[in-house]
Amino acid sequence: MAFEQPTAVTEQDASPATLDVLENNPAPASSEAAEISSAALVEPDETVPEQAAHRPESSSFEDLFGRRLPIWAGGVTLIVAAVLLVKYSIDAGLLSPWVRVTLGLIFGSALIAAAEFARKMERFVQDDRVAQSLAGAGVSSLYVAILSASNLYHLISPGMAFGGLTATTAAAIGLALRFGAPCAVLALLGGLATPALIQSGAPNIPLLSGYLAMVIGSLTLLSRRQRWFWLGAMALAGGMGWSALVIVMGELSQFSVLSIGLIVLLFGIALPLVTGREDRSVVLCAVAAAAAALQLGLLVSQGAYDGLSWGLYGLLSLAFFWLTKRMPTLRTMTALPLGISLFLAYLWPAAPLGLFTAVMGGIILIFGGPALWRLWRPGGGIVEAGQVVGIGIGAYFVTLHQPFDASETGNALLGVGFAALPALGAALGWRASDRQDDWRFPVLALASGFILIWSATFSVSIWLQPVAIAAVSAGLLLIALFSQDRRISNGALVYLAGAVLLLIGTGLANGEVERLTASVDPLHSAQALLRWGCLALVGGAFAWHNAGKSLGRALSAATAVLVYGFLAQIVPAPWLATVVAACILGLALIARRHFPGDLASAMLTLSAIVMLWMIAPSGAWLIRGMGSLAGFPVFSSDLPPLGLVLRGLVGPAFLLASAFWMLRDKAELSPARLPWLLFGIPTLIGAHCLYKLIFAINDSQHFIALGLAERTIWQMLLMGTGLALWRWRKQQHVAATLLIGAGLAHNLVYSMLLHNPLWSEQSVGAWPLLNLLLPCYAIAFAAPRIVQLVRPDLDGQIARARVPWDMLVILIFAFSSLRQFFTGTILVGVPIGQSESILWSVLAIAMAIGWLGWGIRRADRIWRTGSLLLLLAAIAKVFLIDASGLEGLLRILSFLALGFSLIGVGWLYSRFLRSDSN
Fold first, then answer.
1. Extended beta strands in 512-642, E state
2. Rounded to whole angstroms, what are the CA distances from 655 to 575, 583, 658, 676, 782?
3. In terms of DSSP H, where are the helices of 696-794?
4. Which of 298, 358, 590, 871 has its CA 20 to 30 A from that of 889?
5. How far is CA 109 from CA 106, 119, 187, 668, 845, in A?
6. CA neighbours within 13 Å on the CB side: how many for 881?
């Protein structure tokens, strides 16, 4: 038995798959044939694909155009033939309508019978598509025959036609189990088209609903049994299309609303679960549920928002939650039915109070109850938190939109009630171990605070609303402290920022903000103090909570502005800068031990505010100073009054400098030179304004008489102060140099250039030499030497420029003194006479000889070069100007003096100086 040869496979005993194998291998060897035959009988499922894989490439073309298309084309041709046959009989008048319909039914039944025969003769037919084509043509013939009897010949009533088509659809569904997908497609198309093809009066919505439920349900079950996911999806889409069409048509009775609502629930929730294909059923369920929610929302609006429509929507919502429990991935879609329900409640026109209350309560119970239950349990998360927040905010907004004529207090209490929903959710998670793993807790807490702030807008006056918002922010800060969750405090900061903006907005209207920037009398209002004080306290609490961080420094700065706003409501504007500077001094005392970094930002902010107040007095001084650079004298009446200078400039500057001087050991808070800058510049401006009051120069005559004296003494004070500062604290050489440089610059610009007595009308004094010329030019002569003393490191740069500067100062002083000898106290206005002109030349020659001697003694070429230049200028003046105006003996004497001077200069050069070559 073990070695028995396999029995040969005959054509009658072989399956179609085996015949395909034999056909593709026509002449194998005997042993190979036996192996192939045995393999075909024993393992047909493995052999056939292997053989099919070795078919030639042309088999795909032959399979398509030789086997597949002809069969389906034949089925379509049979249908066309039936239609043409019926048309021919109608045109020729051969058959009566009853006979035509009967023959159509017989022809369709015969085609179905032929399909069954072809299926049983599978071994002969060898292709399932033959039976499928015949069955499809038969079902189509039945549909055509019944529709002809009803709509064309009116032989049967619409009810009988509807029953016939329904029976045909049921038969097609049954045939799909035997003949495959084509019958299922015809059943789908015929089942969906039947209600539209039957001509009747008013549609029977309950009957239509039952029919659609039966057809769509049967097709869905068929798709699950045969694993035809596409069939179930298309059936549900068709059913949803019919339900949407019915709802849009409107004018539904209560029973119609109930029936159409139930089939929407069937199509949207129940049937998608039985379509199979778990990998696709989630998407199908999501789409179907969303479509159902939209359709029932439309049904509610079409049904005048009656209780039945809302009840059906509530039923859908409950079914939706059951679906999300079965498929957790659909949890995020709960926002859709919730949003639709709130939107419908918002659109509800003139809602009855009782029904509206019931609907809103149902929304809270249906959507909020399960969300709160699952919020902190395994599987719950931010989706449930968002749902609770959405209910609280959305329901409050919808309720406020309805015109129920509630009082402002009632609206506020209603807001407190809705705020309790997210607050309850946060309270349920207070002891949850995973509370800080996601955003559930902070989102719920912040949402509750938002609703409370919203409700406060109805219960308090507008001036008190910033305080209410700040109070809610402070409460959230306390929750953040106890829960150790900074996300809550950061979110509360947004609310506090809104309170500040509201404070500014309302303050603009009542004049509070104006007191921050203008010299307006303080309000002394309890409302203003309460508003600014509360926000400053809350801002300080947030700054303390974030101490040591960049956010804390920013909050300290913002709190400083609020504190300034509080002070501006009670302190008169002229004293505001001084009071704020005193506060900075107090902060400096605290910053030496506590929160230096955070208080530094507050100090700098308040310092900036003080400096802004200093702009008024210092700006007036600066404007007049800019004008003085163009030659316009500065009168004492043009400068700020003494009181304003002391209160708004010198006093605040002293307090600021003291504050930062106390923090000098903390370089990050007070750079070494900051106190000097804060105190020095404003004090210098104030001192100059005070000094101008001593001379009280208020017109041009006073300026001519006292201007040079005033400038000279001021320059001596500047340079003397700089020198004294250097002698006291030599490490402050920068400040000393600046003061000395300021004195020298003042002398150069105003005394040597703009208002020099040689060309500007200035009184120098009546006594020769013992007048203001000597100290005026002595300052210019001594200033570079004082700078060299204070700053030895600058000696090289100053030494190169000092000699030319000394020669210029000596020359101008000499000529000014000579001029004063002839003119008196005013050097301008009197023409230069001949004698004076000659003395100018003599003085120039004498100074040139003196400079030459000094240069020879010091071995300084600059002095010698200067003497030669001065001598040449003097010679040119003698020849060009002086000699032309002299006659006789005077001309001879002038030339004799000039000649002897030149000989003396040459002798000095040859006697005391060696040539460059030696």
1. none
2. 13, 9, 5, 12, 35
3. 700-728, 733-746, 773-790
4. 871
5. 5, 15, 16, 101, 147
6. 15
Give me 689's structure tokens: 């304004």
Q: Which of 397, 555, 550, 542 is nearest to 475 (CA)?
A: 542
User: What is d(CA 458, CA 408) in angstroms, rounded to the nearest whole number?
Assistant: 5
Strand partners, 391: none
Contact 453, 469 (CB under 8 A): yes
Distance CA 736, CA 213 (A): 101
826: β partners: 763
* 593 three-state secondary structure: coil
Token pair for residue 413?
């209490």
Contact call for residues 169 and 198 (beta carbons, < 8 A):
no
How far apart CA 394 and CA 399 sit, in angstroms, is 9
Question: 747 near 715, Cβ under 8 Å?
Answer: yes
Cα separation, 822 vs 831, whole angstroms: 10
Long-range interactions of 128-132: CB distance < 8 A, separation 24+: 128/179, 128/180, 129/68, 129/71, 129/72, 130/71, 131/179, 132/75, 132/179, 132/180, 132/181, 132/182, 132/183
CA dihedral 873→875→876→877, nearest 10 degrees, is: 90
Q: How is residue 66 written in tokens?
A: 């030789």
- Give the number of other Cβ atoms within 10 Å of residue 31's Cβ: 9
Q: Tell whether the torsion through CA atoms of 575, 578, 581 and 583 is positive or negative.
A: negative
Mean pLDDT per 10-residue segment, the chain (918 residues): 38 38 38 36 39 42 46 57 62 67 74 71 60 67 69 68 73 73 73 66 72 80 80 84 82 79 83 69 82 85 82 84 76 84 88 88 89 85 89 90 76 88 91 81 93 87 91 94 90 94 85 77 76 94 88 90 91 87 86 70 87 82 84 84 81 83 61 58 82 86 89 90 78 74 88 88 85 90 82 73 85 88 85 75 81 78 80 70 54 56 57 48
* Residue type at 280 in one-letter notation: R
C-alpha to C-alpha distance for 609 and 50, rounded to whole angstroms: 91
Q: Could you count the other beta carbons within 10 Å of the beta carbon of residue 207? A: 13
Q: Let me know how many helices (H) and strands (E) the chain has, helices first.
A: 38, 0
Return the closest-CA partner of residue 178 out of 134, 148, 216.
Answer: 134
- Strand pairing partners for 763? 826
- pLDDT at residue 880 in the model: 61
- Per-residue burial over 233-267, b if 16 or more Cβ lie within 10 Å, else e, is bbbbbbbbebbbebbeeeebeeebbbbbbbbbbbb
Ranges of beta strands (E only) in 484-536 are none
**Within 10 Å of residue 302's Cβ, how many Cβ atoms?**
17
DSSP state of 826: B
| C-alpha torsion 596→597→603→609, nearest 10 | 180
Residue 5 zone, left/alpha/beta (φ > 0; ψ -120 to 50; rest): beta
For 102-143, give the DSSP string: HHHHHHHHHHHHHHHHHHHTHHHH--HHHHHHHHHHHHHHHH
Question: Whole-angstrom Cα distance, residue 27 to residue 764?
Answer: 142
Give the C-alpha separation, 329 to 324, whole Å: 7
Q: Half-sphere exposure of residue 529, counting CA atoms within 13 Å on the CB side?
A: 7
Largest CA distance in the chain: 172
Q: Rounded to 10 degrees, what is the CA torsion of 607, 610, 616, 618?
A: -50
Query: DSSP string of 283-328?
Result: HHHHHHHHHHHHHHHHHHHHTTT-HHHHHHHHHHHHHHHHHHHHSG
